[in-house]
Amino acid sequence: MQAGQPDFDSFGVQHGVTIATVAALIAGMCWTGRRLSGTAAGKRYEIGLAACVWILWISYQAYDFIKYGFEPGNTLPLQLCDFAAVFAALVFVYPARRLQSLAYFWGLALSSQALITPDLAGGPESISFWWFWLYHVFVVGAGVYVVVVQGFRPQLSDLWFAIAMGALYVIAMFTINVIFDLNYGYLGRATPGRPTLIDVLGPWPFRVVSMMVLGAIGMTVLWLPWAASRSGFRLR
User: Fold this and answer.
1) Backbone phi and psi for residue 152, each to the nearest 5 degrees, phi listed first
2) pLDDT band with cut points at 50, 70 and 90 for residue 208
3) Residues 6+ apart with CB under 8 A from 12
4) pLDDT for the residue 214
5) Cβ–Cβ < 8 Å for 105, 222
6) Which is it for the CA torsion 50, 52, 55, 56, positive or negative?
7) What is the average pLDDT value for the chain, to the nearest integer?
8) What angle do CA 67, 70, 74 make, to 5 degrees?
9) Is residue 116 one of the residues assigned to a domain?
10) Contacts from 30-39 at CB under 8 Å and sequence distance 24+?
11) Least confident of 45-54, 90-99, 119-128, 185-194
12) What domain count does the chain have?
């Protein structure tokens, strides 16, 4: 953040308007996908969505590198949302079930936390503000898109796959963080510069276990309605 630049107004009016805008953009993305589904125009549309994700992904990394230089703790694309963005870009053009699982569970249960408690300094006057929110429109939106447009219906095997891949991510990033004293995935010793759920999960490294458990619970909650519908359970 540049000197003198005001902080992002978390949990204020600005945050609420931004979240509403993100939700509207995701709804519009899915509505258009439904309208064009099964057509040649639909294929081109999804290629365009994937291209947007890649452009944002590359430009986001390039901007940080050009502005701040190479910083081992920030420059490498090793945050969870960086991986989720890759899955999102791929699933738009190659809707394989494994990719749909990661787009759905990681996008909605994990990456969505960045919308609730954004680790973001600076408001609309900062270009990083726009990159951050547009980035998450696609990352979180892909999780909605696979259900609404591609017809993905998560099963127990999909849940276990997403949890297993999440565990592998945690193990890999935890190891890298310990060796190089970094904080990718917020799995290192440091805590975010702004208030997040991580602040109440206790001291490091024990909070890493809590983060894994909460992530697994969040993904399970996203699976439960589908399991209930298949079992014939209906809320009355």
Assistant:
1) -70, 130
2) very high
3) none
4) 95
5) yes
6) negative
7) 89
8) 90
9) yes
10) 30/141, 30/144, 30/145, 30/148, 30/149, 33/145, 33/148, 33/149, 34/148, 34/149, 37/149
11) 119-128
12) 1
Per-residue CA distances from 146 to 41, 105, 142, 200 (Å): 18, 11, 6, 33
The answer as to whether 26 is a domain residue is: yes
Measured in degrees and rounded to the nearest 5, phi and psi for residue 50 equal -60, -40
The Cα angle at residue 123 between residues 119 and 125, in degrees rounded to 5: 140
3-state helix, strand, coil in the chain (%, to 5): 70, 0, 30
Domain that holds residue 142: 13-230
pLDDT given at position 8:
66
The model's pLDDT over 220-233, given as tens digits with 9 standing for 90+, comes to 999 999 999 877 65
| 69 pLDDT higher than 70 | yes
User: What would the two tokens of residue 171 be?
Assistant: 């193990």
CB distance 1 to 121 below 8 Å: yes
User: Which residue did the predictor score with more confidence, 48 or 196?
Assistant: 48
Residue with tokens 């630049």: 5
- The phi-psi region of residue 117 (left if phi > 0; otherwise alpha if psi is between -120 and 50; otherwise beta) is beta
Residue 1 maps to a domain: no
User: Are 94 and 147 spatial neighbours (Cβ–Cβ below 8 Å)?
Assistant: no
The answer to whether the beta carbons of residues 2 and 119 sit under 8 Å apart is no
Q: What is the DSSP string of 93-121?
A: H---HHHHHHHHHIIIIIITHHHHS----
Residue 163 belongs to a domain: yes
Q: How far apart are CA 94 and CA 43, in angstroms?
A: 10
